[in-house]
Amino acid sequence: MKVIVEFCANNAHFGTDEVMKKLEQHPNFEVYEYGCLTGCGMCYLTPYALVNGETVEAETAGALYDVIIRILDQMKSDNT
């Protein structure tokens, strides 16, 4: 099962570029970076990503990574 995670390049100042690099190493994620995710300024307010099309945000990039991993774990448990 692949989880699609999309990042906004303008959000990298929060450290989401490091989250993206970590997720790219994980076999269950397809990671994409775009110049804009049309979040209308959200990229300047908080670390966020789109996970399977849904907006996921957190207070820090590390917390965002943890949330994304929890989503994957939840999806795995829902499919068993």
UniProtKB/TrEMBL annotation:
InterPro entries attached to this UniProt entry: DUF1450
Name of the protein in question: DUF1450 domain-containing protein
Biological source species: Paenibacillus lentus
Highest classification ranks of the organism: Bacteria, Bacillati, Bacillota, Bacilli, Bacillales
